[in-house]
Amino acid sequence: MQSPDAIPSPALIVDLDRLDRNISSMQAACDAAGVELWPHIKTHKSVAVLKKQLAAGAKGATCAKLGEAEAMLPSGVRRIFIAYSLADVSKARRLRELAGMLDELILAVTSEAHLEVLEKVLEAAGISVPVLMAVDTGLLREGVRTPVAAGELADRIRSSRRMKLAGLYTHEGHAYQARTPQQVELLVRAAEDSLEAARDEIGEDIPIWPGCSVTATEFLKRFPVKAVRPGAYVFGDLNLAEGPGGMTFDDVALHVLATVVDRPEPDLALIDAGSKVFSSDKYSGNITARAVDREDVNVTRLSEEHGFVTGRGVSNLRVGDRHLFIPAHVCPVVNLADRVHVVRGGEVVDVWPVDARGRSD
Ligand SMILES: Cc1ncc(COP(=O)(O)O)c(C=O)c1O
């Protein structure tokens, strides 16, 4: 067995016990509520992690991209929801092949303009699929904005020979702005109202699929949904550990291992992890990452190969020290790495490839 001290930095370190705990507690919450779990694989992009989620009881997987779905097939997954506006006719053959390898492939319809193109993709693929209609509940990304638009889009779906309306979905990612559990509750209530208004207008009791780690347990507690699609819960990050989404620092299962490479000023340390490791996502204005073992040691600026570490605790950092950092947002960090090092009981027990790394196709 290798010691973590021998892992060359920068590297991504996964705490296996915490990962297993995050997977089983989300699954237990879903099971207790009688709700299906379709975790979003965008966070881990890993066959090994999806296998664990499926073994724990996940009903299927959610992906953003066709390439991610293809990369997850070795996990044995049989049901996939591609929660994205698929609008590229050149992907028709790949889509048909993917559908042929699954028991259930669900696609998203996100607007009337999108429906028209998706119809062409499905014609070219020669397949018919169940679709979930996107309803915007406050993120202001994809999805119908009003109940009337939901009713009109539902009519268009009903008259399509390639699509069958199977439900409504939303990604309530604006929940990351919430600072208290009360704000999360209010936001979930508002999302419920939008989803119910859309369903009333459509005039069918179709299933509802929300999806976000911050709101998952609140939805499970209060509102009858068919499935939830959290992603980031599996590893956690600063957004989740500092926010009201139900995770703590002790739940965070993925850290960036980095080495202090220089101390050019008394209040500044440079580490060997820059934007090519952390991505540009920030927490609370300017924090890219926070050291786990020291108060007030934060990565606050990046160049490609350097992280600029500032804060009260920086005076204690020495060149050559190795530290673990919690990234602001874990998903893009994983997508920048070829592999993660899996640690349990102070030993490296495995190295997993990031199988869908870069599969944004
Ligand atoms: C459509 C969709 N569903 C689910 C998720 C999962 O959200 P989270 O990673 O916050 O749990 C995302 C995240 O971006 C998403 O875009």
UniProtKB/TrEMBL annotation:
InterPro entries: Ala_racemase_N (IPR001608), D-amino_acid_metab_enzyme (IPR051466), D-ser_dehydrat-like_dom (IPR026956), D-ser_dehydrat-like_sf (IPR042208), PLP-binding_barrel (IPR029066). Pfam families: Ala_racemase_N, D-ser_dehydrat. GO terms for molecular function: D-serine ammonia-lyase activity. Transmembrane segments: none annotated. Signal peptide: none annotated. Residues 253-344 form the D-serine dehydratase-like domain. The keyword Lyase applies. The keyword Lyase applies. GO terms for biological process: D-serine catabolic process. Gene3D superfamilies: Alanine racemase (3.20.20.10), D-serine dehydratase-like domain (2.40.37.20). Keywords: Lyase. Belongs to the DSD1 family. This is D-serine deaminase, pyridoxal phosphate-dependent.
